[in-house]
Amino acid sequence: xxxxxxxxxxxxxxxxxxxxxxxxxxxxxxxxxxxxxxxxxxxxxxxxxxxxxxxxxxxxxxxxxxxxxxxxxxxxxxxxxxxxxxxxxxxxxxxxxxxxxxxxxxxxxxxxxxxxxxxxxxxxxxxxxxxxxxxxxxxxxxxxxxxxxxxxxxxxxxxxxxxxxxxxxxxxxxxxxxxxxxxxxxxxxxxxxxxxxxxxxxxxxxxxxxxxxxxxxxxxxxxxxxxxxxxxxxxxxxxxxxxxxxxxxxxxxxxxxxxxxxxxxxxxxxxxxxxxxxxxxxxxxxxxxxxxxxxxxxxxxxxxxxxxx
Length: 309
What we know:
By secondary structure, this protein is of the alpha/beta class.
């Protein structure tokens, strides 16, 4: 609640701000498994899960993983942020507006912009503008004094008003990102003896890469997602009376206003993090279905055997 000229306000103002952050970051606990001189071998009785892990062996050594079923998956980071803001004010305002005070306020604003500017040229221009407006304000003040001394009416406006305004806003952001597992060696051999072999948003880099699944063989992408929701609302009203003089004539009146506003914004985005196999020779076998959805396979030779495709 504000008015032009100079004056004062008696009232109340309250502000509330609430921030909530939640982070679950698997990348902070990322694992590294490797061998400096020999092969890296895993044998699981049932399910083998490689999650957000780097598995490393020398260029002349192998990574061998065997299990009934297997998933090589990307680690997941989740970040959730919520904000809420509320603002309320109400009160009584008394203000005086004259040509001198109005121009003085403009000079003050120009001076403030000069002080805030980081550009030396803008700083100088606003300083010149403030000086010019200050000179005009002084001239208007002199005219008002001369008018009063000669018994003439100077231009002025006195306003008294009451009002209230409030606003509220909230926002929510949910971000999910993935960091794929990596397998690096001279040879990478992944074998399932009974069920599926799945690679999700992860990378195999080797001289020879062999994927042998008794069930389905799936090379899939992980999905990084971003969801943003925000909404805001505001309302207010004011009412008052004024008395003033302009050009030698007196007048009075009643002023009033009201406003209501509301808005919202929603956005969603998805980015695919592809699985990748890069090797001189790639062998892929599946006892049942083979699917590539968001995957890149690069090799000088590619040998594929599919129960179903």
